[in-house]
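Appendix B, record 7
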Amino acid sequence: MATRIDDDYQNLKKNVHTHVVERLDEEGIEVERIDAQQLHRFIQSTVDQYVSVNRIPLAMADHTMLVREMVDEVVGFGPLEPLLADDQVNDILINGARSVFVEIAGVLQKVQVRFIDDDHVLRIIRRILAPLGRRLDESSPMVDARLPDGSRVNAIIPPIALDGPSMSIRKFSSKHLTANQLVNMGSMTRECLDLLAGIVESRRNLLVSGGTGTGKTTILNLLSEFIPKDERIVTIEDSAELQLNHPHIVRLETRPANTEGTGRVTARDLIVNALRMRPDRVIVGEVRSGEIIELLQAMNTGHEGSMSTIHSNSAKDALIRIETLLAVNGYDAGERAIARLIGSSLDVVVQLTRLPNGRRLVSEVVALRPTKDDPYRMETLYRSSELDWLAPEDTGVAP
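Structure tokens (predicted):
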């Protein structure tokens, strides 16, 4: 991932890129149609010529790197390419041209990779958006998108982003961890795995709760392996990340509004439609808005064994967050009625935690056992022994 970061090199890179683009235009070369090896040879020849004519002193390693980076600029996503190709990198965070962070094994770290300037960041963002028909300008300064490999992208630009254009990439991986791998890594015990398998097979409605980057999607993928193969599943996501190992799946994805402000399809719309598709189970990638109303009602009306995830730091907080989502999205009922709906719809909450060293684990599994006096009465089915020596604020689990 090493990349030259000094200003002289970045200025050279900017000038060479301009020259390469001009030469492509002069020769009438269409990047999308030319053979990759032929294009690489053309770029190498153009860079060689530029360096020679301008008598630029470059070590062989720097010269080779410059050619590679020009190829990335022309056909790829520039400085992002080595990070996207690195399987160890889970997230890429660009905080302006000179500040790039990655997450590896749950730990954020700054890398030497940088962009030339803010215009360079904008150029890469717009290259990502171009095939998708998405707009990004002062009147629409925020956008969600997806790379060709499925990685999820969020970009935001000035004047909303005060320190220059910012981009966050959650990389998509088709290589999901197996149950045995999660056990061997210490993310859960064999006892916990057997418990979760039994919960899914017995068609309990389940919510996976955890903070950002705790592995909620990974656990949802794992749980799907225990759904009987003769059941029909409908999944609903804002950005398709689930890779369920199941023979009978219908995958639905939300759609943002177009440039005219129309055509939006929400998760709530999709759940309403999904219930007309004869699903045995509905799986919602994440509840964050009004779709929670329809999901809870689906769980209550014959779609047992449905699942979703929610951002929350403890099982109790997850229920409180659901309460809030119901209230702010117009569910007109009293406090006790809302609590009864939640208590009767959800059966199990699986809480995930990321430890200070970046390792993710299932911290606890709790069952809801509502009573007349306490609709949120919980019974702990599993609790990780690793939490016993950590302070509560480090675990996200109530003591």
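Remarks on this record: The longest strand covers residues 360-368. Residues 7-27 form the longest helix (21 residues).
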